[in-house]
Amino acid sequence: MEEGRMQERRTTGIVLAAGAGTRLGLGPKALLPYRGRPLVEATAGTLSDGGCREVVVVLGAGAVDVVAAAHLGRCRIVANPDWQSGMGSSFLLGERTADPADHLLVALVDQPGLTPETVARLLAAHRPGRITAAAYRRRDLNGGSPVSQLLRGHPLLIDASLRAAVAATVTGDAGARGFLRAHPELVDEVDCTDQSTGEDIDTPGQLRLLQ
Across residues 143-159, what is the average pLDDT? Predict the structure, then answer.
């Protein structure tokens, strides 16, 4: 396919939202309250508002409760029966569910700082045959100014032509990490520090990100 046509390809957003949130002890992260609605609903809306033509939400722990509580009518919802095996199985299920012609924009449900502007920036920056990753400048522990080093984070935009190659490397809880390490020459990092810190909610102390 010639470059002009590749650039016209559409993007499906995938929200990985299957985890049980065991370390937080508050139930599935998908149901954490964020600005008046469940976090999974907010994240899915962000991907749609940022330019993804469709959003696939991969659920797991408490899937029935999540579907009942969150308004996800515009999304394709799939439940991962093997969610306890790690994020990799949810990634693979989302990839199989998405339109095979689309690029994939993979987001984590527990990144409440994600904005439509970040999503749109990644879509605009993406180049054919490559992976485009949001990156963030690390701040010091006292909340000071960002330092110069960019750290790769999420979302991650995977070109349609690389989907099969990435999926072939996915195991356990690693997601696309193995492919990214093996092929750094294919990864473009886009600075999104002005939008958020890029942090995930992994510990009780990070619940402040929901405020």
Answer: 81
User: Is pLDDT above 80 for 77?
Assistant: yes
Distances (CA, A) of 109 to 14, 34, 85, 102, 184: 10, 11, 17, 21, 25
Q: Which residues pair with 151 in a beta bridge?
A: 136
Q: Which residue's structure tokens are 């990144």?
A: 111
pLDDT of residue 3: 39
Q: CB within 8 A of 110, min separation 6: which ones?
A: 19, 21, 29, 32, 39, 200, 201, 202
**How many whole angstroms separate alpha carbon 95 and alpha carbon 191?**
25
- Six-digit token pair at 193? 């520090």
- For the chain, the domain total comes to 1
Please give the average per-residue pLDDT across 165-176, as a whole number: 91
For the chain, strand residue ranges (E) read 11-17, 33-34, 37-38, 54-59, 76-79, 103-108, 131-139, 146-158, 187-191
How many other CB atoms are there within 10 angstroms of residue 43's CB atom?
A: 28
Q: Rounded CA gap, 20 and 97, in Å?
A: 22
Strand partners, 59: 17, 79
Tell me, what CATH number does 119's domain have? 3.90.550.10
CA distance linking residue 47 with residue 17, whole number of Å: 14
Strand ranges in 89-130 using DSSP code E only, listed in sequence order: 103-108
Structural domain of 125: 9-195
The token pair at 15 is: 């929200």
Contact 159, 126 (CB under 8 A): yes
Contact 47, 55 (CB under 8 A): yes
Domain assignment present for 1: no
